Amino acid sequence: MKICVFGASSAHIDDNYIKIVEKLGEEMAKRGHSLVFGAGGTGLMGAAARGVKRGGGYIHGVVPTFFKENGIEELYDKCDKMTYTETMRERKAIMEDEADAFIIAPGGVGTFEEFFEIVTLKQLNRHDKAIAVLNIDNYYDELEVFMQTACERKFVTRSCISLYTIFTQIDEVLDYLENYVPQRVHFSRAKLGD
Fold it and tell me: What is the C-alpha separation between 174 and 177, in angstroms, rounded?
């Protein structure tokens, strides 16, 4: 399975996040999965790639050319395949299309945007792939509270929240992805119903 991991590019985050996402990548590879990611060499992007490489897995990095040209981010230089795009939108589209499943690791605004986009696309029946959130050190607890509040106030439906699952353990994430059975939620139910 090709798994897209979205996560922080920051090199300044706590080392515990790095270690856990490296372990995630290694376990992905040991289970026979490959990585599709944003090609970053630092933060949790780099950690996922290093882990997959250590486990002997295949890595496809996708990055806009201006990242390389403008030195925006250090790229992971051991990708088996590197795809350069013109725009961030094209980058996301390739990762979304190529992936069979998604893991959302802790991250900043870019990761939040990626998470909400793939959930929105799933809500609109543009894909029916598994979305797992890896909640390291309670990072996404407030997201869970926020989404419940949005539900209670009728901005988001319960069906929409069911489109992704939050986990705290690597094995739980990978077991979920490997055993995932697509269950398309009709647009009207995800958008307007319960």
Answer: 5
With both helix axes pointing from N to C terminus, report the angle between 15-30 and 43-54 in degrees, rounded to the nearest 10.
Answer: 40
Q: What is the mean pLDDT of the chain?
A: 93
Residues 53-90 have pLDDT tens digits of 999 999 999 999 988 776 677 899 999 999 999 999 99
Half-sphere exposure of residue 119: CA atoms within 13 angstroms, side-chain side: 24
Per-residue model confidence as pLDDT tens digits over 150-173: 999 999 999 999 999 999 999 999
- CB-count burial class (<10 Å; 0-12, 13-18, 19+) for 90: middle
Residues 24, 37: Cα–Cα separation, whole Å: 14
Asked if the model's pLDDT at residue 193 lies above 90, the reply is no
Which tokens go with 185? 């939620």
Q: Give pTM, 2 decimals.
A: 0.93
Alpha-carbon gap, residue 122 to 82, rounded angstroms: 26
Q: How far, in Å, CA of 180 to CA of 128, rounded?
A: 10
Q: How far apart are CA 133 and CA 140, in angstroms?
A: 8
Cα 121 from Cα 16, distance rounded (Å): 31
pLDDT of residue 101: 98
Whole-angstrom distance, CA of residue 12 vs CA of residue 101: 27
